[in-house]
Amino acid sequence: MADQPTTGRRVRRWQWGWGGWRAEVGRLLEVAALLGLVITQPLLDVLGRSPDFFLFHRADRREILLLVALIAVLPTAAIGLLGLICGLLGPAVRAGTHALLVGLLVAALAVQVGRHLTPLRGVPLLLAAVVAGAAGALAHRRWRAPGRMLRVASLGPLIFVGLFLFASSTAPVVLPRGDGGAAGTATGSLHPPVVMLVLDELPLVSLLGPDGGIDAQRFPNFAELAAGSTWYRNATGVSGWTPYALPAMLTGRYPAQPYAPHYSHYPDNLFTAFGGLYDIRAEESITRLCPPSRCEQPVMPEQGLGVLVRETGRLLRQVTAPQDSRIDPENSYRERTAEEAGIDAAEPVPDDPKFRWDSLNVNQPARFTSFLNGLTPSPRPTLHFLHLLMPHSPWAYLPSGARYEAPEEFPNEGDGWVDLARARHLAQLGYTDRLIGETLRKLRETGLWDQALVVVTADHGVSFTKGAQGRGMDAIRAAADEVAWVPMFVRTPGQRAGRVDDRNWEHVDLLPTIADEAAIRLPWPVDGRSARQTPRTEPGKVFYDRPAEPTPISGGVPAPLPPPAPHPLVGTAVGDAPPGGTVRVGGQDGLRAVDPDSGQLPALIWGTLPDQVPDGTLLAVAVNGTIASVVPVVAPDPGGRRFAALVADDRVFRAGANRLDLYLVEPAGTLRHLTIS
């Protein structure tokens, strides 16, 4: 009988413990529901619509599933552990911590909802979110209904994961269906090597000089390529979106479905057609059209779960920020350096010392280096393929090959900013021209220049027309000549002279043309027409902003755009000038210790000006006493009255400390010196 009270206490303790665990699980479910809305859903939504993110980083099924598990489980597990620790400190601490977490998560959710449904941004949105979070925490504490609703909503993360794995555009990348289509059949005995380089976001008009030909002064290597090949000058891409444009080029079919650019959706393509007769050496960027049965996929250090987690963390900061962010997956792609890729990139030093190829190994796109190293003759016919994200943004290269840093939040729209974007695009195109030169040099050294079918083109262009920048429907309607028309060069084996062909070429013609030149019959019908056939008689073209929705476009070979005229002050020396006010400049540390041999230069100068400086006032940027750029003062944007100027000529920089001066240019041409604060 003496033991009965003790037994009763044990039962009561067990019952209290069981009730405590039930309460703890309930709290965890509530937090899981909120975390699903704040983290899991927005991340998996963006990643589910961006299969190219995983294709670019060559992520396999295991890595993607691990990433999804981390997104869906890790935050909840961390909060659960925090709850257990707080529970050891007493019920009051645990209840207060839970209320605080609910308030913070409701506030974070309010930021995302407010950014989509209201015009509030920045501090006002944060203040509104704090109010919403406090109200949510109070409602959760006073009434039972919010908690019950959250516990039901805890099924949300499972639903979000299911949609990602089985219903999103990324689903085929995680769970591929099939392994490619049928191989083509030989129609002859001569199958030349094929060298195919697809550039990205390169409008033909960017290459044109005043006479309508390739501007040989600015882009000598593109001009050399045109002089030795057939230039299809009236060539247009099929879409402004690479996941639709590139499959159309490599299948010969117009976009029909919003599919991921993956071999399970496009089993019939260039790589499967050539795979029976050719060795395939393919370097894809944001597609995976070559199936594992045809292409080896080398493992690179700049891939794997760690990279996916790092980039997903950046994405989370974007989707949860109180400011708008332009989430374009391609803009976040970073080419692996040669060191990261483990490539021995020891290249002969070019004759042009400004290129400094030997000193830029850590900055050159490693995918290009791998492609270049593979350009060697082989006893078996070989297809060498590279899709290179150049001169695609983010813009980071000067024509010399030197690299520069720039803030990510610069706008690309509006007066002044469009001009800056085009200047940066043209500078990076100058660097791309040097890559073309290296390709031509390697082809000649190996003998492939005369033996191979050489194809150089781009998947689409981009508009720098004010009010219609980019490559969407607004740009197509206002500036189709910039978005649709692309460079298209084909050099047949043994071709001795260049020529121009102005037939109505659409990029669905690319695969039929290559197959004809390689003596391969395609085992499926195509929408395109080989260049060996008679040209199209109809002048019209179509462009697809969305699959199965062709937009007619008209026009022929585009006229060259007026070249950006340098201001007369550029290149002149400056002396003393009267004061004109103050200016704030960012990134000044890079000017204090310039090392040109590192391949990095502080070539972008940016900052903010006082509000009283009138719109349209010219601002001169001088480096070491020489004016290197003149830009207009533009209207304020959400970041303030900002300015930015590109110093594209790296000859103005010197090793060591560099002096920066900024001047207001008055209507009479006189200068007023600005004090840098």
From TrEMBL:
Name this protein carries in UniProt: Sulfatase
Swiss-Prot/TrEMBL keywords: Membrane, Transmembrane, Transmembrane helix
Domain of life of the source: Bacteria
Domain Sulfatase N-terminal: 370-516
Residue span of region Disordered: 320-341, 529-552
Compositionally biased tracts (Basic and acidic residues): 325-339
Spans through the membrane: 21-44, 64-89, 96-114, 120-140, 152-175
Record-linked InterPro entries: Alkaline_phosphatase_core_sf, GAG_Ulvan_Degrading_Sulfatases, Sulfatase_N
Keyword Transferase on entry: no
Classification via Pfam families: Sulfatase (PF00884)
